[in-house]
User: What shape does this take?
Amino acid sequence: MNENINKFFTFPELINEISARFVAFGVLLVAVPSLILLVKDNNYAYILLIGLIYGFLARVSSGPKISPLALFVTKILVPKLNKREILVPGPPKRFAQGVGLVFSLFTILFLFLGLNIIAISFLSILILFASLEAFLGFCAGCKVFRIMMDIGLIPEDVCEKCANYQF
Assistant: This one.
């Protein structure tokens, strides 16, 4: 049983870059309306933000297994588009999903505290970086992951495939 639980909470060693970009676009489809609702001081923003948090938490914890967005992208959308797979190391993408989780958690935390300007700032930064990933294929979290490996904060054995990969 313990082995099944450990297997469930794994993240793929390699990620299809095309899928990652579509997931980032899906994040934008939730985050941008959330931002609009936040600016209008509409309480429906909470619902979208909770969905955003769940998606990031699901992807960080177990890859695409329980993320509706990631499942749709990896099992339906990308296969239908017949896009060529471009495989990239998984650990930096997991780290980037973790950063997205932190930013979305801070957004809702500051919203609960009534600090809407700070909440809007965090969500705007998240939208900026999701846009860079979705439209340009630039993963800022992956760059930070690489820097952290280079200075020794992340051991090289966390991502052996990263050693020869240029982010």
